[in-house]
Design brief:
44% of the residues lie in helices and 20% in strands. The two termini are 29 Å apart. It has three domains: 186 residues, Rossmann fold (3-Layer(aba) Sandwich), CATH 3.40.50; 71 residues, Obg-related GTPase Ych/YyaF, coiled-coil domain (DNA polymerase, domain 1, Orthogonal Bundle); 64 residues, Beta-grasp domain (Ubiquitin-like (UB roll), Roll). Strand 8 and strand 9 form a beta hairpin. The chain has a six-stranded mixed β-sheet, with helices on both faces. 31% of the residues are buried. It is an alpha/beta fold. The protein is flat and about 65 Å long. It is built from 15 helices and twelve strands. Bound molecules: guanosine-5'-triphosphate (GTP) and magnesium ion (MG).
Length: 358
């Protein structure tokens, strides 16, 4: 899973990136925008995989992972010419985490205006909407040109209709994620990977002494349909440099229950509607990520395209049942070992083995 860390200049993206990845990327206050993203990978330390690995003692244990991509602050009306190469890089990410600066800093306030998270959120959404509008209008111009040359198919006309509706919506300054679409329309738009179609995980970056002072803001941002979390960025960056025991003591003082890595993992899964299923065996215990509502064939395809192509059945049992009853044998005896067909909707915590024939 690729998550883009986005936000206005100097909102604390790299600070949070360092906290997440235990990295050491520069957070120089005066550095000009970088030209590429900092990239770091964080394991999803799902304790269910750890337990399964203890049970099956496989040769390999593979956790899921999240790749965080920390982009320079290019989404601002003040930003100099945005870098188009970065735009397509960002669009390849599955989820967007937007960092808002809520900590005061005399110099940053002077350069970028006071830390006003709601204004930043508005500005960011506006920039996304404008970028999308430019892309949609360019495509419409091309379609028009095609019509003049006699290129007019039902598919292109359908695309035009969907794009016109999208443009109207964007011109009202509304993000595309709020546009009601039929699945076929959705399919047309998906190809463009419009920015404003993505859900946002909003991270309110506060200073340590204001960690608990932002409940109202959190509620307001959540009311706009975003997933939201308050993060004391610089504090978390410092925590990431400590050993676990030391960090735990500081976290307790602050009332932080889980590491920033674990908190963001849960939030990203929630925002994207992702869930985990597992495969187990002597060779490998492994976590796989799919979207809620995906069926057994889609799950099979994650493992290997042959498994989806030649899918016969999914042998399936629940992680919780395995832990409760101790072994696959006990599950079979209790009738908790199921055979599921193509349409079965995979559940979080399913342990699956695909029967297939190609
Ligand atoms: N007080 C305080 N300062 C912070 C916090 N987070 C970041 N900073 C400071 O803000 C400045 C900018 O932080 P960065 O993490 O580099 O911000 P950025 O969003 O990556 O900046 P660009 O990539 O240049 O847009 C640095 O001087 C950080 O030390 C925070 O939570 N509290
Ligand atoms: Mg940065």
């Amino acid at each position: 899973m690729k998550i883009a860390l986005l936000g206005l200049p100097k909102s604390g993206k790299t600070t949070i990136f360092n906290a997440l990845t235990r990295g050491n990327a520069s957070t120089d206050k005066y550095a000009p925008p970088a030209h590429e993203a900092n990239v770091g990978v964080v394991q999803v330390l799902d304790e269910r995989i750890t337990r399964l690995s203890e049970l099956y003692k496989p040769k390999k244990t593979i956790y899921a992972h999240i790749e965080y991509r920390d982009y320079p602050g290019i989404f601002s009306s003040r930003a100099e010419n945005p870098d188009n190469a970065l735009f397509s890089d960002i669009k390849a990410c599955e989820g967007f985490a937007l960092v808002l600066r809520a900590f005061a800093d005399e110099e940053l306030d002077g350069l970028y205006g006071p830390a006003d998270p709601l204004r930043q959120l508005g500005e960011f959404e506006d920039e996304m909407i404008i970028s999308d509008l430019i892309v949609a209008e360019k495509r419409l111009e091309k379609i028009e040109l095609g019509y003049k040359r006699g290129v007019k198919t039902p598919a292109i006309q359908f695309e035009e209709k969907v794009l016109r509706a999208s443009c109207e919506h964007l011109q009202d300054n509304l993000p595309l994620r709020g546009l009601q679409l039929y699945p076929e329309e959705e399919k047309v738009l998906r190809g463009f990977r419009f920015f404003s179609q993505n859900p946002l995980l909003v991270l309110i970056n506060v200073s340590e002494d204001e960690y608990t002072a932002h409940d109202d803001l959190k509620t307001q941002i959540a009311a706009r349909g975003h997933t939201v979390e308050v993060i004391a960025g610089r504090f978390e960056e410092e925590l990431s440099k400590l050993d676990e025991e030391e960090a735990a003591a500081f976290m307790e003082d602050m009332g932080i229950g889980e590491s920033i890595r674990d908190r963001l993992t849960h939030l990203c899964y929630k925002m994207l509607g992702y869930l985990s299923f597992f495969t187990v065996g002597e060779d490998e215990v492994r976590a796989w990520t799919i979207t809620r509502g995906d069926n057994a064939v889609t799950a099979a395809g994650k493992i290997h395209s042959d498994l989806a192509r030649g899918f016969i059945r999914a042998e399936c049992f629940k992680y919780d049942d395995l832990i409760a009853h101790g072994s696959e044998k006990a599950l079979r005896e209790k009738g908790l070992f199921r055979l599921e067909g193509k349409e079965y909707l995979v559940q979080d915590g399913d342990i699956i083995s695909i029967r297939f024939n190609v």
